[in-house]
Amino acid sequence: MSLNKIGNFIGFDESFDEAKLVIFGAPFDGTTSFRPGTRFGPNVMRLESDGIETYSPYLEKDLEDYKLHDAGDLDFPFGNRDEILKVIENYTRTLINHKKIPFMIGGEHLVSYPAVKAVFDKYKDLKIIHLDAHADLRQDYLGEKLSHATVMRRIWDLVGDNKIYQFGIRSGEREEFNWAKEHVYMQKFNIDGVEDLISSIGENPVYITIDLDVLDPSIFPGTGTPEAGGVTFKELLKAIQVFEGLNIVGADIVELSPHYDQTGVSTAVACKVLRELVLAIL
């Protein structure tokens, strides 16, 4: 499988064979409903990652103490959504078959669906933790069932009821919120109660997907669909510290559109979220 890479994310210098966790980019934004640009997220994060340290004073861990590999960006057939989703699914499955923890950098949120599908094939008792401004629970968006606005509904099609835990949700259609009451756990507006996940999820395998627009746009303006009323970085960091106690078998961060924030702050925040989440997994 062909991958493209310009440099490594800081601290991800181990060979593929030796690595325990592998990051890879999914530079796709073909179903973006508002402002495109997430396809540029993975490579910009690599370039800007030199602006952070490998050491986390929050978790007291260092990326350099672990075997980590940056595989680069997946090479996509331009304009072919369905084939692109297959490429993501197949590469994620390759990582799992090689006993690696897959960590994907989006890209728009639809890229999470094929990654989760591959992980779910391995772990049938998989739980999903979803941090986002948007519910993403529509049955379809403008007639399309595969969209960044429907991604969590498609993931529900895989895992079923009471397997998805959503936090920070503050945007969606009325029908999404009503449907959620019967089928998923949803914490609206904030991430209160995230610490309860440890007891409710236990040792079950977990996939974490963080749409970075869960953060307030005053902190993270570099995204395609900003929503006022989001969480702070410190609140997100608190959740990530809770995740350290879970059995995480796959993860992604999505929806950085770097060119909407010419200060570079959004990219710097995204890099730090990646570092903290990776260290929480290990």
List keywords for this structure.
282 residues, alpha/beta, Arginase, Chain A, 9-stranded mixed beta sheet
Notes on the protein architecture:
- The protein has helices at 41-48, 81-97, 112-122, 151-159, 174-183, 197-201, 233-243, 265-281, and strands at residues 3-4, 21-26, 55-56, 61-62, 68-74, 101-106, 127-131, 164-169, 185-188, 205-211, 247-254.
- With 282 residues, the protein is of the alpha/beta class.
- It has one domain (3-277): Ureohydrolase domain (Arginase, Chain A, 3-Layer(aba) Sandwich), CATH 3.40.800.
- It has a nine-stranded mixed beta sheet with strand order 1-5-2-6-11-10-7-8-9, with helices on both faces. The chain has a two-stranded antiparallel ribbon with strand order 3-4.
- Helix 1 packs across helix 8 (265-281).
- The longest helix is centred in the first third of the chain and has 17 residues, at 81-97.
- It is globular and about 45 Å long.
- The relative contact order is 0.19.
Helix fraction, binned, reads 25-40%
User: What is the count of β-strands?
Assistant: 11
| The CATH top-level class label | Alpha Beta
CATH topology: Arginase, Chain A
**Would you identify the regions where 5 or more consecutive residues have pLDDT less than 50?**
none
Tally the structural domains: 1
What is the global morphology?
Answer: globular
Q: How large is the count of helical segments?
A: 8
**CA gyration radius, whole angstroms:** 17 Å
Q: How is the biggest beta sheet arranged?
A: 9 strands, mixed
Strand order of the largest sheet: 1-5-2-6-11-10-7-8-9
Counting helices, strands and paired strands, the structural category is alpha/beta
Mean of residue pLDDT? Answer: 95
Determine the CATH superfamily: Ureohydrolase domain
CATH architecture field: 3-Layer(aba) Sandwich
Distance between the termini: 26 Å
H/E element order = EEHEEEHEHEHEHEHEHEH
